[in-house]
Fold:
Amino acid sequence: MNSSPVASSNAVALPPLHTLAGSAERTDQSRADIVRVGIIGYGYWGPNIVRNFHCVDGCQVVSVCDRSSAALERAGRLYPDVDLTTDYSAILKSPTIDAVAVVTPVWTHFELAKSALLHGKHVLVEKPFTCTSAQAEELIELADRKNLKVMVDHTFLFSGPVMKIRELVDSGTLGNLYYFDSTRVNLGLFQHDVNVLWDLAPHDLSIMDHVIEDRPEAVVATGGRHLNGLADVAFITVYFPRNVIAHVNVNWLSPVKVRTTLIGGEQKMLVWNDLAADEKIKVYDKGVKITSREDVHELLVSYRSGDVWAPRVEQTEALKVELDYFVYCIVNDRTPINDGVAGLRVVKLLEAADQSLKARGSIVAL
Ligand SMILES: NC(=O)c1ccc[n+]([C@@H]2O[C@H](COP(=O)([O-])OP(=O)(O)OC[C@H]3O[C@@H](n4cnc5c(N)ncnc54)[C@H](O)[C@@H]3O)[C@@H](O)[C@H]2O)c1
Structure:
């Protein structure tokens, strides 16, 4: 994606991510610029983080920590040269580690990230950033004070389809936006510590936050809990200025997996089906025009139905692009687009959605 400046309040242009893989920006990198990483949490997602950090130029995975020795055995078989520990403080205290990835359950993010920052480490924190906005604000302030980077793993922002969608919005191809409608449903994976909102919706809300220029004004959420006391089905509506509306449908009780986003604009509309093997994005030259003439009392409705095209999207694994960017931001002292402030915006939306859900869909102003 091009890094052309974007004229909007939400305008944080992505770096030329495709050049990072080739280390074009880091050709003068000395050994001192090698970012040495420790990863805490090697459960379901941690192995993906470790595998991708291993492929990042200018980065060395020094240590992996998990409370579970079975998890560490799995890591040890794949990465015999990496230190393994069940004690996360060994990573935090290690003078050879520059950055820590927190890949543990949500309720542990704040304490682990705070300790890492207090020990002078840059941190990558899994989504959702924290359990509360107060915690997120504290981490942002602490990182600022210590001049350290915080990045929140909003993986999808670095996927080919989302980079393409952002490009289509920024270039004005879609025209003024009408709506953003995202469906992320599947059977499971049930979580024990967070409801479906906090588990799945961070993906959709971070994408929405990245694609829609304006800041949201209010949230309505409804949903139901059917099995373990936590909401397992939820529908979130987010209201934006200029009549833009977003809707997110997250569900752990769906018989089929759906990962589809519709974005409607005045000029074009698009469908992103993330499960499609190719042509994940289709752009439709479709629209509706309503006109009235002074001498005609009825409204004249005309429908436009033109070409459909599938733009080419980057295929590189999003997590690889993101971790490359994490190292780039540390080495080049840049503020990531998915920094703590971006993480806080998502946490605020989740808090508001939770509040609305508990009140059976009452509107919560942001
Ligand atoms: N970005 C994504 O697409 C994505 C995908 C899945 C999960 N996640 C996030 O990743 C995080 C972890 O999720 P998961 O599904 O891997 O969970 P998990 O329960 O499978 O794994 C968490 C691991 O952390 C370990 N752990 C917990 N506390 C620890 C501590 N104090 N010290 C050392 N180890 C500790 C556990 O033993 C476990 O192995 C969550 O925040 C989740 O939201 C992100």
